[in-house]
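HOLO CASE FILE
Compound: manganese (II) ion
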Amino acid sequence: MTHYHLAVVPGDGIGPEVITESVRTLQALAEIRGDLECTAQMFDWGTEHYFRTGQMMPDDALNALESGGFDGILMGPVGDPRLPDHITLWGLLLPIRQRFQQYINLRPIRLLPGVRSPLAGKQPADIDIICVRENTEGEYAGVGGRVHQGEAHEVAIQSVIFTRTGTERVIRYAFDYARRQGRKKVLSATKSNSLQYSMVFWDEVFQHVATAYPEIAHEQQLIDSLAARFVARPEGLDVVVASNLFGDILTDLGAAISGSMGLAPSANLNPERRFPSLFQAIHGSAPDIAGRGISNPIASIWSAQMMLEFFEERAAAAQLMRAIERVLEANEHLTPDLGGSASTRELGDAIRAALKD
Ligand code: IPM
Ligand code: MN
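Model generated. Tokens follow.
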């Protein structure tokens, strides 16, 4: 029996409802299998915490996560219309990614069986991409400043940071992933026609790393035309490696072509396992539907499934993925984003029932 101790941060908006379904599903899976056990410690960090204390999370929060013996962190979305998003995100999620060196953000983009893509005629085999997004530097390095605020001559600078270490490790991870998973090609998202320092450097590192993987094809494409290709011809795409911001944008596009923002998961990984990794749906807190019990919990449950994969609980992870796929294929118990009328809880219950088949 393997025991996993999780830190759980439900977050804002629909976060608590989708996270509840993830935790219940993990516990149901553990009970059915009998070979693993999950315990969860809840942290009520987020916007309500901010209004109570003036901080999104307490001063010692990162130390508590680091020293609490956690195997992983399950997190809901963060953001609330009452606060500027850069305050909430730089108060909670982004410092965790940086401090815990979660430099890989792994984001599958798959059209699951039974789900309709807005792209006409697409089948599951046509959309099966894995985006490896850099997650600690690039456009999200957090370096910059503003002077002369409010004046006509105000200046705002947001610096992008590309280090050789950071660039090489994410590209290497993408090739290693391709090798491990038997994938055939790694495509690098670039913009070196206009970004003559950062992206020309990125391209050089990509070309250099690629030489160590002769059996894996490699290709680079400008991000603007790659965005068009996601819509026009997603079939040829396999592993895609991208900088922080490019990967962010591409994966919302990826979620849209896969049928719903409510389906897309992510894993923020510290591959060395020096720090806990964080698993989170890529969608936002959806304040417009929060509290109505109609949000889709699949993105969050699938993120928990990615956590099991990271724990190398392969059989348990496969069992959970099959259950998600079965429920989607059966086309019952689906939430409104997928054209159904089920509640968050009903969809979660259907997945837990499918675990037993
Ligand atoms: C995501 C989100 C975050 C990001 C936000 C909330 C900071 O959009 O995980 O994709 O941009 O990385
Ligand atoms: Mn995003």
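CASE NOTES: The chain has two domains: 1-108+264-357, 117-130+162-258. Residues 15-33 form the longest helix (19 residues).
CLOSED: yes
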